[in-house]
Design a protein that fits this description.
301 residues, alpha/beta, 6-stranded mixed beta sheet, 13 helices, 8 strands, 9% strand
Length: 301
């Protein structure tokens, strides 16, 4: 089981009231919400391995160089020659180090890769996996990794930290009209304002799906745009031609990396905390209460 950790703690933050606080009054709603999420996932799905995948760089420079608008609207502070600061609620940012410390004390593997997003870590681990793999994320971009033949599926939270939709290739086809292995190209054509991807003028979800269904893949759609005998309308040809520069680079931005060098890490879900003393101290400091106890009860014995 691969957790898109930032996606989940953002969801926990907005799904759990800020009135959930540590003994000193500091909000810990994201911390406790994420722990409740982990407890529920482990209880419901019993994974052998569990990895909290992290954003070592939430807006990699190599993606920005290809598409400067990539996540630009979410930058709170630019950091030359470093990682830009993401716009994050004031009461969420201080909770992230607590989340990391609690996961480490529990012994739940955390993995990130310099210059890459959690999506890329997930893509690499999912590609390497030799058995069924569940990806837990609120980010539809990871639908591109769904692979029924290999048992790779997405658990997509419906609301808060509650139930998840099980996303298979059949679900992707039903919802979007494309196979999962074409979802990235579908996203390129459609665009995604939440990631600063402009897409192609005049092409929304339905048209993107129709084009890929008719021509097969993005390369064939682009070839049709240069073929006066194709079924594309003149306006569609013009719009695809105008977006040529974007279409040259967008697939590389949207596709998750699948061949990162990652440290050799034990991914096994622990049966007991790795550092009980540290966990006790964190519990006392932050008032993790029932949320921590539910995670401990969910661990395999």
């Amino acid at each position: 089981m691969l957790l898109d950790t930032a996606s989940l703690y953002f969801r926990a933050y907005f799904g759990v009231p800020e009135s959930v606080r540590a003994p000193d009054g500091t909000p810990v709603n994201a911390v406790r919400g994420l722990l409740d999420f982990v407890a529920r996932l482990v209880t419901d799905h019993r994974p052998d391995d569990l990895v909290a995948c992290m954003d070592a760089d939430w807006r990699p420079q190599w993606r920005v160089e290809l598409i400067p608008s990539y996540k630009a609207h979410r930058v709170a502070e630019e950091v030359p020659a470093g990682t830009d600061v993401e716009e994050t609620p004031d009461t969420l940012s201080p909770q992230v180090p607590v989340i990391e410390a609690v996961l480490d004390a529990l012994g739940i593997a955390r993995l990130g890769a310099a210059g890459y997003e959690a999506d890329d870590v997930i893509g690499t681990l999912a590609t390497r996996s030799t058995g069924p793999t569940d990806i837990v994320t609120g980010d539809r971009d990871l639908f591109q990794l769904v692979d029924d033949a290999r048992g790779v599926r997405v658990l997509y939270p419906r609301k808060g930290v509650g139930d998840c939709d099980l996303v298979t290739d059949a679900v992707v086809r039903e919802r979007y009209g494309v196979a999962a292995d074409r979802y990235a190209e579908f996203a390129v054509l459609r665009g995604d304002p939440s990631d600063g991807l402009p897409g192609v003028k005049g092409i929304g979800e339905k048209t993107a799906a129709q084009l890929l269904a008719e021509f097969g893949d993005l390369a064939a759609v682009r070839a049709a745009a240069t073929n006066p005998m194709s079924s594309l309308t003149p306006a569609r040809r013009r719009n695809l031609a105008a977006a040529s520069g974007y279409l040259d680079v967008a697939p590389e931005v949207v596709r998750v990396a699948t061949a990162l060098e990652l440290p050799d890490t034990d991914l096994t879900l622990p049966g007991a905390p790795r550092d009980p003393a540290a966990l006790d101290a964190l519990d006392a400091r932050w008032g993790l209460g029932g949320s921590l106890q539910r995670v401990l009860a969910a661990l395999p014995r």
